[in-house]
Amino acid sequence: MQSSPTKHPLEVEREENGFDGSTFSDHLDKPLRQHLDVAYSEVEEDYSAGDEDNQFSENAQKQMVVYDPSANGTGEIEAVPDPNEYQPPPFPRNSLPYHSSRVLPSVGAFTVQCAYCFKWRLIPTKEKYEEIREHILEHPFVCETAHEWRPEISCEDPPDICQDDSMLWAIDKPNIAQPPPGWQRLLRIRGAGSTHFADVYYVAPSGKRLRSTVEIQRYLLEHPEYMDAGVTMSQFSFQIPKPLQENYVRKRPARLTASSDGTNIGMAGLLEPSDVNPLALPSPDENTDLPLDGPGLSSPLCESLASELVDRPTKKQARTASQQMCGSKLSL
DNA sequence: GCCACCGGTGGC
DNA sequence: GCCACCGGTGGC
To answer: Is the CB of A213 under 7 A from strand C?
Structure first.
């Protein structure tokens, strides 16, 4: 593998009926040497820019997470799939491709890249993934780490998963603390074309959903028992992964600074065709695996950056359309 | 009426 | 440009 890019894709298949159905994985195909930290930050930053050079500097470690909780967020992934041929989780129970008005992507799988061989390894549960992620910088993940649930696995084995167009990949952030016992950290992926890629929520043992550090703080103050039990703010992080797909998130128009002459008022920056990803694929049903072979992007693994949101209709429409595309890919 | 989801926006 | 916060609201 040459130096390839480092990416962490997160794949979202999609969710049906308002929930699962999606897959989410992130992966990297870049080599890591051993410093994850560096790699990681690079991954996050460069990647969207598309410059491969930065993208992988030397170590890009990749970690991916993919899980497909049936109930969104709860995280249990089905048993570790056959290492040799993992396929994105099938649509969950009743899911027909687009039959729901609400089709949101959700995390379908958690994967982490081996620091030695760079192959992606599926992590069996969200909890395990969170555990690995929490210390990924200090303790890089290697195939051997998976012995805990797959005694036989080694760098010699083929990767558990490769990026393909059935899922949306996103790069996760390293070293996010595991939630306190009894709490759950939920990552909700938004539909393509949204102004935000995802949202993180914490669910307190009481079932209360909290969506910001401010809310957590307030909640802890109101419920001192948690603090007495040792719960601290450091156990919460609202950092979200970054989508590999460049135009997944709608960019907001340049802020209109009060321009003195007022010439700026208006919609500068609104939906110009130019901001559509040039790599956009022709159609959703075509193979989105673009051969992005630019100089550094050669890894056969995980490299497609197909943009699904080829053009953006109107907000809502865009959203719907993109969601559908997403869904269609999966379903078709 | 509730709440999951979405989008606006202020601050960096 | 990104992130954090949170108000609004559609869908249940």
So the answer is: yes
The phi and psi torsions of A198 (rounded to 5 degrees) equal -160, 170
Render pLDDT for A197-247 as a digit per residue (tens, 0 to 9).
999 999 999 999 999 999 999 999 999 999 999 999 999 999 999 998 888
Residue nearest to nucleotide B10 (CA to C1'): A255
What is the spatial distance between Cα A170 and Cα A19, in angstroms, rounded to a whole number?
19
Contact status, residue A69 vs residue A107, Cβ threshold 8 Å: yes
- Is A174 within 7 A of strand B by CB distance? no
Strand partners, A109: A67
Amino acid at A170: A
Strands A184-189 and A109-113, by their bridges, are: unpaired
Task: Return the C-alpha torsion angle A311, A317, A323, A329, nearest 10.
Answer: -60
- Phi and psi at A291, nearest 5°, equal -80, 85
Cβ–Cβ under 8 Å, residues A203 and A189: no
pLDDT tens profile A247-273:
888 887 776 654 444 443 333 333 333
> Tell me, in Å, how far CA of A73 is from C1' of C12?
20
CA distance A327 to A88: 13
- Give the integer Cα–Cα distance in Å for A149 and A78: 12
